[in-house]
Design goal:
Elements: E1 2-3, E2 12-15, E3 18-28, E4 36-43, E5 49-54, E6 59-62, E7 65-76, E8 79-84, E9 90-94, H1 95-98, E10 110-116, E11 120-125, E12 129-137, E13 151-155, E14 160-163, E15 172-176, E16 181-185
Antiparallel strand pairs: 1-6, 2-3, 2-6, 3-4, 4-5, 7-8, 7-10, 8-9, 10-11, 12-13, 12-15, 13-14, 15-16
Length: about 190
């Protein structure tokens, strides 16, 4: 059992016979009253996302998760295929199970497959950053600096990220998978 105040993004717990993944957890102190935990949670089986408020002292049962190193191979429609890098066994995960994580999946990217009870595939743990190419953004503004307000850029997977004004279409960028934010231009030596 763990208290709600200790829940963090990516953790999985069991509640009412359902496995729930924490997508976002914020400690919130309203003007009056007690502190609460505001969380976005995804039901792993149905893919439904709900916003829930819990008392910080409320307890939940954490699910034991085991991980296997895998490589993303391809997707056909709403089914994403991964391969265990040691056994070459392939696993399929639906887009509902992946949620927004699917927007960070690049061919051959290394991920961790997450299993509950040793056999039930829950989803993937992404690397901290991924390198993606910009497929659409507005033209740069002459004299733009890093301190500008930025502009939206659509990456090759459909992910939209706020980037500095000087970023152009075709550039490769490092994107933070935890926050979905621009980190830097990709090093050309990669």
């Amino acid at each position: 059992m763990v208290q709600a105040i200790n829940l963090k993004k990516g953790m999985v717990f069991s509640q009412d016979g359902k496995m729930i993944r924490v997508l976002k957890a914020n400690h919130h102190k309203p003007g009056k009253g007690n502190t609460v935990m505001q969380m976005d949670l995804r039901n792993i089986e149905s893919g439904a996302v709900v916003h829930k408020t819990m008392r910080p002292t409320e307890k939940v049962e954490l699910v034991e998760i085991t991980k296997k190193k895998a490589q993303f191979l391809y997707n056909e429609g709403d089914v994403y295929t991964f391969m265990d890098t040691e056994t070459y066994e392939q696993y399929e995960i639906s887009s509902e199970q992946l949620g927004d994580d699917r927007l960070y999946l690049m061919p051959n990217i290394e991920v961790q497959l997450e299993f509950a009870d040793g056999s039930k595939l829950l989803g993937v743990e992404l690397p901290a950053t991924v390198v993606m190419k910009v497929v659409h953004t507005e033209p740069g503004i002459k004299g733009a600096t890093v301190t500008g307000t930025g502009k939206p850029a659509t990456m090759e997977t459909g992910l939209v990220v706020q980037v500095p004004d000087f970023i152009k279409e075709g550039e490769e960028l490092v994107v933070n998978t935890t926050e979905g934010t621009y980190k830097s231009r990709a090093d050309s030596n990669n």
